[in-house]
Amino acid sequence: MSAEENKALVRRLIEEVWNQGHLAVFDELYAPDFLFHDPGLPHVRTREEDKHWIAGILGAFPDFHITLDDVIADGDQVVVRLTARGTNTGDIVAPRPHPATGKQVTITGIAIARIANGQFVEIWHQVDWLGMFQQLGLIPARGQAG
Questions:
Q1: pLDDT tens digit string along 48-79?
Q2: Secondary structure (H, E, C), the chain
Q3: CA–CA separation, 99 vs 93, rounded Å?
Q4: What phi-psi label fits residue 10: left (phi over 0), alpha (psi between -120 and 50 degrees) or beta?
Q5: pLDDT for 12-21, tens place per residue?
Q6: Pairing relation of β-strands 104-116 and 119-127?
Q7: Average pLDDT over every residue of 28-37
Q8: For residue 53, what are the contacts with CB-CB under 8 A and spacing of at least 6?
């Protein structure tokens, strides 16, 4: 696939799966042997674990929406810089379980996707989990009492 086709696949993932919550598309977009890497989510590695994690995020933040700030492609890899927003009206499952707070969050992140044969085969993911938990009031921000 061309770099432009790979970028279109990433945009489709963000729009259909994340922003619209169509998890049925997930199996079409992800290779069976898919691998996920995020140091904040060591329990999420496989396609099914990633699908379950995404469902958990969408359950905890029903209005979750990702904006792609940058999309850069080279060969079989696509790099995105993203901003995600949502309101925590459901229980958080991972990376740290907690009841809903009702608070809104804005978090940023970067992901690198490797694509083969029109499917995601590997994603490296780095998100500001600390900032999210601080915005939810679950971890004190710097200078706040603990």
A1: 999 999 999 999 999 999 999 999 999 999 99
A2: CCHHHHHHHHHHHHHHHHHCCCHHHHHHHEEEEEEEECCCCCCCCCHHHHHHHHHHHHHHCCCCEEEEEEEEEECCEEEEEEEEEEECCCCECCCCCECCCCCEEEEEEEEEEEEECCEEEEEEEEECHHHHHHHCCCCCCCCCCC
A3: 9
A4: alpha
A5: 999 999 999 9
A6: antiparallel
A7: 97
A8: 41, 44, 93, 94
